[in-house]
Amino acid sequence: MSRPSDPFDTYLLRVFSTLMAERSVSRAAARLNQSQPAVSAALKKLRDILGDPLLIKDKQRMVPTERALQLEASVRIVLAEIDGLLAPAAAFDAATTRQTFRIGTPDYLAPPLMANMVSYLRLTAPRARLVVHSLGPDYDYEAALAAGELDVVIGNWPQPPEHLRMAILLEDEVVCLVGRDHPAAGGSMTVADYLGGAHVVPLMYSVTQRGVVESHLAALRMTREATVTVPFFGMAPYLLPGTDLVFTTSRHFAEHYARLLPLAVVPSPIDFPVMRFYQLWHSRTHHSQGHAWLRSLLSAVARTADATQGLRTPARRAVRS
After folding, report:
1. pLDDT tens digits along 53-93
2. Measured between alpha carbons, how far is 126 from 144 in angstroms, rounded to an integer?
3. pTM (2 decimals)?
4. Which of 274, 279, 273 is nearest to 302 (CA)?
C-alpha cells in the first residue's frame, strides 16, 4: 500500500503562524529571515492546500479569513509540540533530580557495597529514589532492561549477554567460608576435602546462566554435594557456624560475614577463575544523562571498595560499551 502524501511541512506552518501574527508579508519575511517572494510563494501554497485565501489584503495590512482564524490556535499547538520534540534534553542535575533509578541484582554483593551506593546517592541526589529489584530464575531481567523496568543489572555470569552494554565494576577471588570450628579453619583444604565435603549452594538466579563456581566445576568435570540449598546468598553464612558445611563465594562477601559471625575464610583448593562483577544496561538508555550518572556512581562505589577492601577494579574502563 502506498504511503499517503502529507501536503504540510514545518516551514509552511511557521510561515502561516508568522503571517497571522504580523499581518504583513514583508514583516513576516523579515522575522523569518526569508525573502518576500519566498513567503508569498509559501502563502500561495497554503491557499492551494487549504482551498481558502487565508489572508486578504485590505489597504496596508492583511486581514485573516474565518478559516485562518479557526486554524491559528491549532497551528500554534502543533508548532509548540514540534519544538518540544526537537529541543535538546534538559541537562541532568543530580542535586535536584526526582528521577527513580532501578537496579536489579542478586544478593551476592556484600551489604556494605549497596550501603555505600545509598550513601553516595543520598549525598549527591537527595531527591532521587532508588528501587533495588532482586533477580531470580523466574524474572526476565533482559526484557526488564529493554522495557525500562530496570536501568542497570549487576551480574557476575561468566558469559554476560552479548547484546547488552557492560562495564566491569570489580574483580574478586573465589574463597571458601566455613565455621570457625571447621576442620579446615585456620589451615588448608585439599581438592578431595572440597569435593567430598558438604556444601551450601544458593539457587540459580538466572534460567540461562550458570554461576562462576558451577561453570568451572562443570568444565573440570567435577561435582560437589549440594547438601543445603538456600534461596539467596545472604542466608548461607548463618548456616555455617557449628557445622561442617562449606560455602564457596567471593572474598569480599566472605570477609564481611567473617567479621560478623564465628567464621573463617579459607583459600579454595580449586583454582577458580577470578569472579568479575559488572553492570549491564540496554542501549536505549546509553545516552541518557541520568542513567550515565547512575552508572558512574556504581563505578565510584566499586572504586571505594577497591581502596578499602583490596578488591581489584581493572575495568574502570568499559569492557563492552
Report:
1. 999 988 778 899 999 899 988 888 888 778 767 766 678 89
2. 26
3. 0.67
4. 279
Integer CA distances (angstroms), 203 to 19, 67, 105, 166, 218, in order: 69, 69, 14, 24, 16
- How far is Cα of residue 295 from the mean position of the Cα atoms in its chain? 7
Give the orientation angle of helix 25-32 with respect to helix 10-22, to 10 degrees: 130
Residue range 10-86 forms a domain whose CATH class is: mainly alpha
Contact 247, 178 (CB under 8 A): yes
Point out which residues pair with 200 in neighbouring strands: 228, 247
Confidence of residue 185 (pLDDT cuts 50, 70, 90): very high
CA gap 176, 188 in Å, rounded: 10
Instruction: Show Cβ contacts of residue 219 under 8 Å, excluding neighbours closer than 6 positions.
Output: none
pLDDT of 143 = 87
Tell me which of 3.40.50.1360, 3.40.50.1970, 3.40.720.10, 3.40.190.10 is the CATH number of domain 100-171+275-309: 3.40.190.10
Q: Give the mean pLDDT of the chain.
A: 86
Give ranges for CATH 3.40.190.10 in the chain: 100-171+275-309, 174-267
Q: What single-letter DSSP state applies at residue 312?
A: B
Grid coordinates in use for 121? 546517592
